[in-house]
Amino acid sequence: MARKRYEDLRSYRWYGADDLRSFGHRSRTLQMGYDRADWSGKPVIAVINTWSEINPCHTHFKDRAEEVKRGIWQAGGFPVELPAISLSEPFQKPTTMMYRNLLALEVEELLRSYPADGAVLMGGCDKTTPALLMGAASMNLPAIFVPAGPMLRGNWRGKSLGSGS
Predict the structure, then answer these.
(1) What is the CATH number of the domain that holds 119?
(2) In DSSP terms, which residues pair with 47 in a beta bridge?
(3) Is 78 in contact with 15 (CB distance < 8 Å)?
(4) Rounded CA gap, 35 and 156, in Å?
(5) What is the pTM of this model?
């Protein structure tokens, strides 16, 4: 598959065009400490992260996101982390199912409204996974899913406990 030309990327409309709006986007990105070489000519890859401190399945995503971004840099992209609502089955009431579609809409709108050329979706439960995938599919952008993996085990009175013990 041939690589897209920079001018054919969605992010070009934000960064590459020769107009006042693109000037503003470039200026604000420079104000955040990036150099023009960080984004110019590179695909912008959104890292959709469902990390939160109240979601035991996703607590390690704070660190994983940095590793994902490092991989994007190494592959020649410009990573931009975008947080999304975290669906925490053990804590969210009455049920995370009520919020699955909200997450799907959020992912679609994050990818639509920001200069994303592709996405890395970070999630990992039976509600977060389909929500992330539905949102990305609605935008028809290249995306890859990074699963959270199994929930870490707990300990009680010296015994290991798994999820549901």
Answers:
(1) 3.40.50.2300
(2) 81, 120
(3) no
(4) 50
(5) 0.88
Q: pLDDT tens digit string along 140-158? A: 999 999 998 766 677 888 8
On whether residue 154 sits in a domain, the answer given is no
* Residue 58 to residue 88: CA distance in whole angstroms: 9
How big is the CA angle at 10 (ends 9 and 13), to the nearest 5 degrees? 105
Is residue 149 classed as helix, strand or coil in its secondary structure?
Answer: coil
Phi, psi of 15 (to 5 degrees): -105, -30
Full residue range of the structural domain in which residue 66 is found: 42-147
Using DSSP, state whether 29 is helix, strand or coil. helix
Q: For residue 2, is pLDDT > 80?
A: no
CB 29 within 8 A of CB 15: yes
Q: Is the pLDDT of residue 3 over 70?
A: yes
Assigned domain for 113 exists: yes
**Which pLDDT tens digit goes with each residue over 81-94?**
999 998 888 788 88
Q: Which of 153, 129, 132 is nearest to 141 (CA)?
A: 132
Residue 86's CB: how many other CB atoms inside 10 A?
Answer: 24
86 part of a folded domain = yes
Number of domains the chain contains: 1
